[in-house]
User: Fold these one by one.
Assistant:
Number 1:
Amino acid sequence: MADKTTDTSRVLIFDTTLRDGEQSPGATMSHEEKLEIAAMLDEMGVDVIEAGFPIASEGDFAAVSDIAKNSKNSIICGLSRANIKDIDRCWEAVKHAAKPRIHTFIGTSPSHRAITNLDKDEMVERIYQTVTHARNLCEDVQWSAMDAIRTERDYLCRVVETAIKAGATTINIPDTVGYTTPNESAEIIRELLEKVPGADQVIFATHCHNDLGMATANSLAAVEAGARQVECTINGLGERAGNTALEEVVMALRVRQDLMPFNTRIDTTKIMNLSRKVAQVSGFAVQFNKAIVGKNAFLHESGIHQDGVLKNVETFEIMKPSDIGITETNIAMGKHSGRAALRSKLKELGYELADNQLQDVFVRFKALADRKKEVYDEDIMALMSDSVVNTGEDVLQVKKLRVVCGSDGQEAALTMSVKGEEKSATCEGDGPVDACFNAVKEIFPHAARLKLYQVQAVTDGTDAQATVVVRLEEDGRIVSGSAADTDTILASVKAYVGALNRLIVRRTKTAPDSDMKTVSFKQ
Ligand code: KIV
Ligand code: ZN
């Protein structure tokens, strides 16, 4: 359990990339990917990993329990609504961890109370019962007042007091809709600490969404007011405008120690690799000018800046690239580089592969090195982002593609394997990518609609690889696929097929039970 008393300058980092982050439409991650990310978060020094919402599906349950079993130092937490069935299921999943936590929540603002059909007193009763039940199972219980910011202040004090009396050890005050401002965020924490009996016995947490672009500022203001747990995600992943970005909070606390004398346990040199990994598996590319982890975050384009940085790095840089794990050794690899060199480069970039996976990547690395003179770190990361790496058992696999394009029209001849059986189709389309996607649809008919098609060059030059992200939607399920290749059209087909493979997996997942609909979870 997180200790309240030891060090008042210590801020706990609670990462919810695998729960709130994964709720971003299209950001679904596979079981293995979740386990890998959890292991990286644990190694980076994250205090609490929110690994999922165990009752939501069999897949979520399995992910939370496996992450719990594999955990080393981090507390492993699962989410549950305010009912006994959810809490029991959550406990079943997290109990395998050396340090388990049950996180239970209910929406306390007027609009949430209306949805739950509970009046103020009934809700207080429900909070008391559910937190007591959770505490009887687990000594570490977090309680959240969803939409706390829009909850009447006196009622917020009352529900927080109830949760503390029932045994909650962490009280989370979420800004569920990203509505607050730094002043208000601080004021609420201060008021709760002052007015609520027992507040000094628990840890207050801040959980901000970024709808108005103030999540990091609001979280830091809450810390200055007394919150000692920040809830955040890698790259600020999360539904709508996302959650507070872990890397922003951690680096802000580190860079502005003079103003904010708080410490985290985070090994910041692991930030960049985690950012890449999350971008890769979620299919959500990091915007170029994103603070801390964006491609341009440490680039100085203007002459004045370059000159200043060359003379004295502190002129324009408030932190070093190496602080977040950007290595200066972006040495090009080429077709003469061997397996050992590739393995060591992959390790440097944060990928530890089993021998059979390494062999697969090596074959594709060689193929790339044949087509591209110099293979840079970005190319290797793009190779790793190619969904094919992780999916030996994919139902659909691209076997052969021939495309004719130009002023006389476009045609794609595609061969794919569908559950091991080879099928081919030749289709025309409105452009080469459209022709290819039509061929995929002919081979594997489906009703999924294309929600996003995004192409990004990985490096400079006309021989650069393109990373393609495709997002599909079917019956409310949203999935993404990504792939990289020097051939943009081939990468597009592979990304599309990757997304379809994920959709096939999602179709087989158990739908959340009907009780999920009676207590609203999301905005
Ligand atoms: O944003 C929110 O209110 C949440 C809660 C479930 C903690 O994610
Ligand atoms: Zn949230």
Number 2:
Amino acid sequence: MAADDTPLMQQWREIKSRHQDALVLFRVGDFYEMFYEDAEEGARLLDLTLTSRNNGSSRAPLAGIPVPALETYLQRLVKLGRRVAICEQVEDPAQAKGIVRRAVTEMVTPGTALSEGLLDARRNNFLLAITGESDPSGELAVAWTDLSTGELGVQPSNWKELPDLLGRLEPSEILLPRSWELFPIPGADRVVCTHRSDWMFDAPSGEEELRRRFGVVTLEGFGFGPGDGLLVGATGALVAYLAETQPAAAGVLRPPRIERGGTEMQLDEMTRRNLELVEPLGSADGQTLLGVLDEALTPMGGRLLRRWLLSPLIDREAIVGRQDAVEELVDDTSMRRELRKELGSIKDLERLAVRVGSARCTPRDLLAIDASLSHVPALKSALAQARADVLARHREALDPLDDLRALVAAAISDDPPLNLADGGVIRPGFDPQLDELRSLREGAVEWIARLQAQERERTGIGSLKVGYNKVFGYYIEVTRTHLERVPEEYQRRQTLTNAERYITPELKEWEEKVLGAEEKILALESKLFEDVRRQVAALVPRLQELTSHVAALDVLAALAEVAVRREYVRPEVHDGYELVIRAGRHPVVETMMPREDFIPNDVRLDGEARIMILTGPNMAGKSTVLRQVGLIQLLAQVGSFVPAREARIGICDRIFTRVGASDNLVRGQSTFMVEMTETAAILNGASRRSLVLLDEIGRGTSTWDGMSVATAVTEYIHERVGAKTIFATHYHELTRLAERLPGVVNYSVAVKEDGENIVFLRSLVAGGADRSYGVEVARLAGLPVEVIGRARTLLRELEGGMANGSTRPAADVQLPLFEAQDHPVLERLRGVDVNRLTPIEAIVLLAELSAQARS
Ligand code: ADP
Ligand code: MG
């Protein structure tokens, strides 16, 4: 079939063969066409009609997009995770001999998108490159960039940490070596993966790429050392890929920053989701921590805040540094107001800076940069009195970029057109040659304008007009009634129904001057604009440096604003163990009800009482307290104030949050297996310095299984891990653990019985719940009265049965597991090294143990 392709299809095939993994949008006249498999896919993804086009003796499937609709369709394709190659006609069809030449002028992929329609202003759009050793214990390097902001970073990683890193960066595209094509990347199942030849990820080619791109002879200045081959390879591959897809923008990448880890808290995916840090769990419009805190006034501040929440600090000094800054802004209302007033006028400088580096830059972009920069001196003076180190450091680093502003002010006129081609972009006085051309043109225009009056007088024809049209240029028009008075030197050009149009040699001469000047003016303006753009582009690194300070100030001021509005306090963070929260609140739940309705709670975890078993009926508020502790811990390590009356917070290396299977909304189809796999990950990953929050773990199986698992897990954490832990459970039987394990304490969320009803008090009290109140909760849920009545009877019977020595298990009968110190199950448990179990082995073992415990 390829044999008798038409020339157009041959050209398409040739281009498609070089872009196999992309949808090729092939410009034909007023359409971008897709052919064959692209047509089928495109039609399906975009709801286009699939037609066909003659191709020799056969027909080629075809789907087309009208040129003006390109941006809309591109957005849809990229959101769906497709790569798109835009193939333009690169010569004028009128001049082409034979078939018009075409070439791919732009590749659009989720990770390299630049147009505003494809980007979310409050969130980074990361493209990652990963390379390394493919065996499970091997080392990895992960390089990342956000092309829309120009930052570039790289860090060592490994397969175990990779999912958490991916969760933190939330990439929209990952670049991988071709040889990894077949195996799945953990944590990347929803991300578009692009593969490139393995050699692109090699250290030597990476080094060459980086040296060329950044114009350096050695990479040492960036901090790369002899052992950093993987890091260099990943960074080089990333840069090379950008040069391939977005060559213009690749030019404004900032130099790579190496992050060697150890400064940020690792948050795994489940914790991030269960705590609803930046994404709601259930419905898409649910509230998140970010939603409550996001008082940032600039888009870059919004993006940075999101990143701070996803990577809390673990270094006390760094945390205290931020806290000092927030505190000063909380206390000094006028400083905060002034700062925020200026911040509010600053546009997305970070993304504007990148645009300057590309051909997309418009005169208005330069003005927007200038306007934003005009607020920098006021920002600086708002901070004049600032004493906090961090604030002072940012203040000193604020660079007003006067040189950039002077250049823009001198070069660009006040109200430039959107389009360069409309003229009037360059300010008068900037370029003598331009001024001269303009006055030439003006002079000519004036001469022509005077001509009308002059000729009226000379000829005595009062209605004589000088006009202009595209075809004939300038002309003199005389109506028929005056034809006899037309002077001899007028040359007739055009006859209308009741008038004639003339020219004179002199008029044509002046016309030449006007049009000639116009053409030269436009050419000169666009050259001058390009010069200015280049000069501004050379200042982009300073602009990017500035934006990083502006973003940080914006986040600090936002945290202060929230602290004031919501009455947060500064927690005392320390390197010790203890966690004390007095009158703590859930930062998100409290915003969903009138202020006084939320009941604050105290929580204390320390060496003596490090595991809290939290019981209470359904709906009592267990999950809320549990998450509230996690969120307060996290906020404290971000450097924020916290919703409490007082807090002392020992820095954690990690926070783990797990929600039992049947409570787990995250994965919908979640199973006990998933829950246990996650629990295994905690037991293996947590240390004494971790905070572990378990919500209804063990619920996804039968009661006895579940309780056995819950018990064994608690014992393990108590004996072996030593992490501060809160375990919320409606198995009030677990409260017995406190009798045997010294570090375990019981708390419950209080309810008051009011006749047959229960009232939720929402307050945490020492001691475990003695019953589950399941029937009462069922009543609150609206089960029919007959059902409730019957359930009460059954419950009384069951409880009575137990009291009479029935063999049926009862709430207040001790489980054999708890009482027998030398029970074979305990024996086996003691012998297990959990660190050496795979998740599957752990499950198998658990199943055996629980069977054994029941036998
Ligand atoms: P549980 O986990 O015990 O079943 P939740 O923590 O899910 O209960 O709480 C149920 C509901 O109770 C929450 O959605 C919230 O509306 C309310 N609630 C929880 N804690 C408080 C509190 N401290 N003050 C006021 N309302 C609360
Ligand atoms: Mg709950």
Number 3:
Amino acid sequence: MIKACIFDLDGVLVDTAHYHFLAWKRLAKEFDYELTEEINEELKGVSRMKSLEIVLKHANVSLENQKKELLADRKNGWFTEFVHNMNPNELYPGVRELFSRLRRDNIKIALASSSKNAQTIIEILGIQNEFEAVVDGTMIVHSKPDPEIFLLAASKLNLSPADCVVFEDAEAGVEAALAAGMKCVGIGNPMKLKEANRVVNAIQNFNYSDLQKI
Ligand code: B16
Ligand code: MG
């Protein structure tokens, strides 16, 4: 019996993944490196510093930590400019309906995002009161694919991992959910998210009657 749904944020509830991509692409250009959508897949769900390291590795650039901190801050400045221009209409279609069905059925709702900007984003979207537990990038040591973020969400909900289903758009996130002992619905490309128990191309296409059968 599924007692909780744990949602990733970027790429599941809202398309901030695109803003991350634009900000990383701008930074990569400074190293004459053209970041593609394909390589961007590797950045999804992982922490800001880990993402920077992946970009630098592809650009064949090696830097000391202090410089890396500066670059990560710069990218975050560009990203948060996008975030502050967002509005509640950017919530993906189907999210509000899914939340109300879950509430009607007494299934708990939690957020588990690697983003240190998650709190700001959910406030701008006006969904901060939808969650019984929120875990973000400021509360964890190991980012996805480590299961820490999902285990912390389950413990905040006072549930065991087997009671929870995770909704994730990133390969690293699917891996983390399964490593936590949870079921996982992948949102996106079934070829990329093939480890997930179900995959739909957008959250609005998730068949709610499937929830207890996953
Ligand atoms: P920030 P999620 C993740 O959020 C993003 O998918 C990933 O691309 C980003 O690097 C990470 O948050 C950290 O974000 O720089 O805002 O702390 O998908 O776990 O909701
Ligand atoms: Mg995501």
Number 4:
Amino acid sequence: MAESPRKESVPKTVQELVINGEQLPPENYIHKDSDRGVLDVPLVEIPVVDLALLTSLPTRREELEKLRSALSTWGCFQAINHGITHSFLDKVREVTKQFFDLPMAVKRKYSREVDSIEGYGNDMILSKQQTLDWTDRLYLTVNPQHQRRLKFWPESPEAFRDILDDYTIKLEIITEVVLKAMARSLNLEDGCFLEHYGKRATMTARFNYYPKCPRPDLVLGVKPHADGSVITILLQDKEVEGLQFQKDNQWFRVPIISEALLINVGDQAEIMSNGIFKSPVHRVVTNSERERITLAVFCIPESEIEIEPVDGLVNESTPRLYKKMKNYVDIYFQYYQQGKRPIDAAKI
Ligand code: OGA
Ligand code: NI
């Protein structure tokens, strides 16, 4: 009988490389250009925005102004008073850590397929020149509910699924508050970003595990990128830093506020705001002392909705800077794979 063609297998996870204890990371993880992980960049005090003050009449003008200013300079802010208790955030962190601590054979039950990002694994290898990220992930679609692929949702730790479900519901509320406030901060109708986002919007959760890395000077946890979302809500590790944002060609490290959610705008909010809000370029550096775990949730418009700069922001004196786009995430991945900035596809 003829042998069936050998299926390409999912590559080794970063955790497996670490377990092997090699001192020099494999060649395809090493950045050869100058753009590798510099750890001692200046710290930036990302603006802190109190979500409760955003919606309360006596305080909201001032807080909205803080939000507008944060998003048009850094493209991100630390959200506090977001309605999720500190202890619940710790639970989310705890089940995430418990999952990554499971034996490899158990995690492998949730492995992504070779040609899809959903599930457990690391970077898809798309070209020989690609430099890989020093991170393993669990990538799950959490909304809309009917698109959940439960075969990738861990059953261990036991509380994992319920906690993720609960967290999703809480983030839906936060997303609505933030999108409304973003509109209001620009003196627009409350619902104008929300309309472009849609009622059946997609939310994807990416649990990121960054193992200790023997050569943080040569390897990045995540290479520089901007997100393809409208907004991204990041739960940072409670103790270990690693995230850096770029502004005016300089890198800045982000401090940890353990009870805060770090919210950044993605390319689609830059498009909708006609460039007023900046989708920031960011990266993750590794370190040799401690592992780091984060959870990024990407909020993405309903796939049938076309996005474009909202009406109120385009007029004779301020021309529209971006085209109408549909399914931006698909375009995003095509560009990203070619090492180009996806937002350039949308620019007029
Ligand atoms: C991402 C990301 C940052 C982090 O997943 O897109 O930028 O600190 N993550 O894990
Ligand atoms: Ni990102």
